[in-house]
Each structure stands twice: as C-alpha cells, then as structure tokens.
Design brief:
This protein starts with a strand and ends in an 8-residue tail after the last helix. With 410 residues, it is an alpha/beta fold. The strands form three sheets. Strands 4, 14, 15, 16, 17, 18, 19, 20 and 21 form a nine-stranded mixed β-sheet that branches. The protein has an eight-stranded parallel β-barrel with strand order 5-6-7-8-9-11-12-13. α6 links the parallel β8 and β9. It contains twelve helices and 21 strands. α2 runs parallel beside α3 and α6 runs parallel beside α7. It binds ligand LLP. The site of ligand LLP has 20 residues, from α10 and α11.
C-alpha cells in the first residue's frame, strides 16, 4: 500500500474506490506483496533445495491458494478439509503436507487415500499406521524439539509442555516403532512458534532434528515449519530473512554433507507470505468522547479480526479518508457486544463519522479466524492482482446465519 496524492493505493487502485464498489467492511489483499514476500524467501535460500509449503490456515481463500500455487509453492494443511480445499485449488497432493494434530485415525486414513504427504504427530498414530500400512506409504514425523520460540505464549508450540509433535525425549521409541513395522520415514518436521525473529530458534531446532535424522537412512526432507516474524508497525523489528537464509543454508549444507544423501529443506510460512498483503477496511460508525479518551467505533470487531483480543497483537490503523487532517488520539473499538479493542491511544488523522479506516496486517489469521459472533456477517474479500480488482468472496447474507439450523416446533 502506498500513499499517492493524499490517497492510499494498492497497485494504483484507490482503496476508497474498492469500498465504493464492494461496501464495507471489506478485506483487501495485494497479490504483488504476496509475490514479493515469496521471492524474498526463495532468494534467501538459493543454496539449498528449498520447498515452500504455504500454511493455508493463515488464509485459505481459494483464489489466494491458486495465486500462491502459481508462484510455485506447495501447501501445509492441518485438517482434512484444508487438504480438500488445496486439491480444489489445483495443488498436486504430493505437494501438500498434512500435519494433523491429534485427529481421529479415520482422518489420517482419508488423507492417505488422497495421496498427500502425511506428517504424524504421535507415537500412537505411528503404530496404527505401521500396523495397517507397514512400509507402503512414506510418512514424516513432527518432532517437538523442546525449544521456546515465538512472540506470545499462545503461539509458542515447540517447548516441552506443548501438545504438538512427538517429544524428542522419545526419539528412541520412535526409532523402535519405525524399525519394527519397517515404516518408510521420508521426512522430519518441526514448527516451534509464530512471530520468530532470528535464526537462532531455527538453528537450535535444526540441531535437534539433525541428530535424529542421523539415525534414519530414508530421510528425503527436513521441514522447519513456519513462524517468520513480520512487522506490524513502522520501524517494527522483523525477521532478517537474508541473514536467516545464510545461517540456515550453511548449517543445512554442512549436515547434508555428513548425511551423504541429498536432502530437501522445507518451510511452511503463513504470516510471512500473506500478513502484510492484507487490509481490513472498516467504516467509522460513531466518534464517542468519554472522560478519559475518545472512542472511534467501527463496523467490525473481533468477529473479523480477533488477533488484538486473542494475542494482544498490534495492528496499525490509518484513516484513509482524511490523510491531511491533524493527528488526534483515539481508541479504536469494534461494534461487538464484548470488549473488542483494535487499538488503544492511536494517533490518527482526525476521524469523522463515515471515515474509512484501514487496519493493517489483515492478510493472515484475519478472515481465517473470523466468525459470525453477534450474528454478524463476514465481510467480502477482494484480491488486487495485476492492477485489477477481483472479488474473491461475497459478503455474507442473512441466509448464511440460517444455514443448517433446524427449527423445531415448540
Ligand atoms: N506450520 C505449522 C505446523 C503451524 O502450526 C503453523 C501455524 C505454521 C506452519 C505457520 O506459522 P506462521 O508462519 O503463520 O507464523 N493465529 C496465530 C498464529 C497461529 C499459528 C498456528 N500455526 C496468530 O494470528 O498469530
């Protein structure tokens, strides 16, 4: 998004014109930003056989998936429905890694039928798989390397007390199960957290995985998961992707020499690819002074962007209707009947009722974590691609709220 002649534009498209056309609130995504992020990542890892598996949980709109496929990525899916959406978007099942966490074994079996790369996260599931399929299907394993990483305890998932993966403390047991059922273990995986800043967490985890891989001869890929930190405000620290690329490439290639067989390096970025590409455009319903602050109440809330309330996440907010007015301090809140503060004590160009505000970093975990809470509709999604504005999801209507409900006679 850039400011041109006191207007905010994406690829030359005035954002207010998007609101005029599709109404508000609306999510707007910039395809060129997704591409830029994708290319910066692949550019940082030129020295290895890199495979990107986009973490589709961050934004699973079919058109976004198709766009990311066109860039050359595969997918990281965490439910059978994500797998099916990925297939619908045209991904080759072999390019989808399915990492279920603690799902029913029937879901695991269904995914095998669909031909995806299965990534197992418990010894119990590994045994069941061995019993039923022996060495007929290659599988990978999610290891919990006991590392504290990530920007918030709720999104730190690679430490000893996290439910995810098989604890590295049980490596010997895993190896025994693999041996006794002759399982074809073709990969190892970790995902330690989200909003990770530096290479250290990845390198520490890599050492743990390398130690494990040394004991298995069939490994083809090592998957370091996602979690690269993106900036949420001006001047915010973000991951130095080139530095990270350099450090991980060095460690990886060193290990590959030791392993004496070619290895692929996989990553599963979600936020890094799509977070900054998205904006949630909302309208100011009410400007409401109170003794200690002035509230700006917008026609959205935690039903459309739950991250501020769920993780205390900071999302930058700008008034795109009035870029020249003087700065004033506001607390921007939603219209949900529950506390749903988007931003406290923010400096915004003076806000009038009716002004459109842009909430940044709404490309990842915004729509995908949205709900119909308070019986509100989800906004439409718009993708700006090659300078064209494309509607990629309609605004919900009242029927959506009735969908599936059964009215009984009372
Ligand atoms: N791989 C696995 C197995 C994951 O569980 C996740 C995210 C990712 C990759 C992608 O992580 P990313 O690159 O997007 O950080 N809703 C939270 C983030 C939760 C992430 C859950 N797993 C948020 O909005 O901050």
């Amino acid at each position: 998004m850039e400011q041109v002649n006191n207007k905010y534009q994406v690829q030359g498209v005035d954002l207010l014109s998007v609101v005029e056309k599709f109404g508000d609130p609306v999510y707007v995504y910039d395809a060129s930003k997704i591409k830029k992020q994708y290319e910066s990542l692949t550019g940082a890892f030129k020295g290895v056989d890199l495979h990107i598996k986009y973490a589709m949980k961050s934004n699973s709109n079919l058109s976004i998936l198709k766009y990311i496929r066109s860039l050359g990525a595969g997918l990281d899916a965490v439910s059978i429905n994500e797998v099916k959406l990925g297939l619908k978007a045209g991904f080759d099942p072999k390019n989808i890694i399915f990492t279920p966490s603690g799902v029913e074994f029937a879901e695991v079996e269904e995914s095998i039928g669909l031909g995806v790369q299965l990534n197992i996260d418990s010894i119990s599931a590994l045994k069941k798989l061995g019993e039923k399929y022996g060495n007929k299907i290659p599988v990978s394993i999610r290891i919990n390397p006991h590392i504290m990483a990530g920007g918030n305890h709720k999104i730190s998932v690679g430490h000893i007390d996290s439910k995810f993966g098989v604890s590295i403390a049980y490596a010997e047991q895993v190896l025994e199960v693999i041996k006794s059922y002759d399982i074809d273990l073709n990969g190892v995986h970790m995902h330690t957290g989200s909003d990770i800043l530096d290479a250290d967490a990845f390198l520490k985890g890599a050492e743990v995985l390398f130690d494990f891989v040394k004991k298995v001869e069939t490994i083809k890929f090592i998957d370091f998961g996602g979690g690269f930190k993106v900036p949420y405000k001006e001047g915010d620290i973000k991951v130095d992707i080139d530095d990270l690329g350099e450090n991980i490439t060095r460690a990886f290639n060193q290990f590959q020499d030791e392993y004496k067989k070619p290895l692929q390096l996989w990553f599963e970025p979600g936020k890094y690819l799509v977070s900054e590409a998205g904006l949630l455009l909302v309208k100011t319903n009410v400007v409401k002074p109170s003794p200690n602050r002035t509230f700006v109440v917008v026609n959205s809330g935690l039903n459309h962007l739950i991250r501020p309330m769920m993780y205390d996440a900071y999302h930058d907010i700008i008034n795109i209707s009035n870029l020249t007015a003087s700065l004033q301090k506001y607390t921007v809140v939603g219209y949900i009947c529950e506390t749903d503060t988007f931003g406290e004590d923010r400096q915004l160009n003076e806000v009038q009722e009716g002004d459109i505000l842009a909430i940044k970093n709404a490309g990842a975990y915004a729509f995908s974590m949205s709900s119909n809470y308070n019986s509100r509709f989800r906004p439409p999604e718009v993708l700006i691609v090659n300078g064209e504005v494309k509607l990629i999801r309609e605004r919900e209507t009242f029927d959506k709220l009735l969908d599936g409900q059964i009215e009984i006679d009372i």
